[in-house]
Specification:
The protein is an alpha+beta fold. It contains five helices and 18 strands. The chain folds into two domains: about 1-70, Vcp-like ATPase, Chain A, domain 2; about 80-290, Fumarylacetoacetase-like, C-terminal domain (Fumarylacetoacetate hydrolase, domain 2), CATH 3.90.850.10. The chain has helices at about 35-40, 40-55, 85-90, 170-175, 230-240; strands spanning about 1-5, 15-20, 25, 65-70, 80, 110, 115-120, 125, 135, 140-145, 160-165, 170, 190-200, 210-215, 220-225, 250, 275-280, 285-290.
């Protein structure tokens, strides 16, 4: 089952599910938002599945709705995994501007600020003053569905709610400028599409999933999820060691080779570029880079 968040023509945001015929079933308001469904997973999911699969449920054409990020309110930073495809780790050797490290023996984790989040078809905010080296990173994201700390690997999958896609748009010069720490070069506002639908864990066979990134019609990244250096269960177990994971937490699982910074010559994103991230059974993100002033002083409204 594929769950999402849509905006109606009235401006109201509603939980929804995607049917096999391509139409969308809008959930009754009493289901609440995606976070509420994740929190109440065991009781909410059977009811939602019944609603979505019922012939009596009215379907709405997707073209009549605006598809939003499945999760609209994050409780913490976006959790991320670096170097989780070895071909990606090796392609950047010697191109990290003096910040190379030995091949890691355990998953590499970092975070992105929550204000990066945008929808699957929203424009990616682009400001050349912020960075001159904007890069794409196609990733499979997982969402935690059950709280846990120091989760044994054999129980880790029970803590996964589902999967979707993310584009971990990165600013390579900011990564280098700040000592090789990735937070700053990964946390520019309005730059990380997430979605399009959150597919339940048991409805995805990751071994059969191919992840792909396309830039202006050219395929730049393509890999099987089975090529991950550290699998999903190991990521969840390692990340949760001494650290509580909570329902609704989003974890990006790493990008494969083909990033722009590692190419010869490098390929960096520019205003007007169209980036498409897709994966087998998970749909696609389709986002254009559009100029926005991110570098001027601003205060909260």
């Amino acid at each position: 089952m594929k769950l999402g968040t849509v905006e109606l023509r009235t401006g109201e945001e509603r939980l929804a599910c995607l049917r096999a015929d391509g139409n969308v079933v809008i959930a009754p308001r009493e289901f609440g938002d995606m976070q509420r469904v994740i929190d109440a997973c065991d009781s909410a999911i059977p009811a939602l599945r019944k609603l979505c699969e019922s012939p009596q449920s009215e379907g709405t054409a997707l073209s009549e709705l605006r598809l939003l990020s499945p999760i609209r309110r994050l409780r913490r930073d976006v959790l991320c995994t670096g170097w989780n495809y070895w071909d990606h780790f090796y392609e950047s050797e010697g191109k990290r501007e003096g910040q190379d490290v030995p091949k890691p023996e355990a998953p590499t984790f970092f975070t992105k600020g929550p204000d990066v989040l945008i929808g699957p078809h929203d424009d990616i905010a682009f400001d050349a003053v912020i960075s001159g080296k904007w890069d794409y990173e196609a990733e499979i994201a997982l969402v935690i569905g059950k709280e846990g700390r120091s989760i044994p690997r054999e129980h880790a999958m029970a803590h996964v709610f589902g999967y979707c896609l993310a584009n971990d748009v990165s600013q390579r010069d900011l990564q280098r400028r700040h000592g090789g720490q990735w937070l700053k070069g990964k946390s520019i506002d309005g730059t990380m599409p997430l979605g399009p639908w959150l597919t339940l864990r048991d409805d995805v066979e990751l071994a059969n999933v191919t992840l792909e990134c396309e830039l202006n019609g050219a395929v730049m990244q393509q890999a099987s999820a089975s090529q991950m250096a550290f699998g999903i269960a190991e990521l969840v177990s390692e990340l949760s060691f001494g650290m509580t994971l909570r329902p609704g937490d989003v974890l990006l699982t790493g990008t494969p080779s083909g990033i722009g910074n590692a190419r010869t010559p490098p390929v960096f994103l520019k205003e007007g570029d169209l980036v498409v991230v897709r994966a087998t059974g998970l749909g696609e993100l389709r986002n254009r880079l559009v100029a926005k002033d991110l570098s001027s002083y601003a205060t909260p409204a």
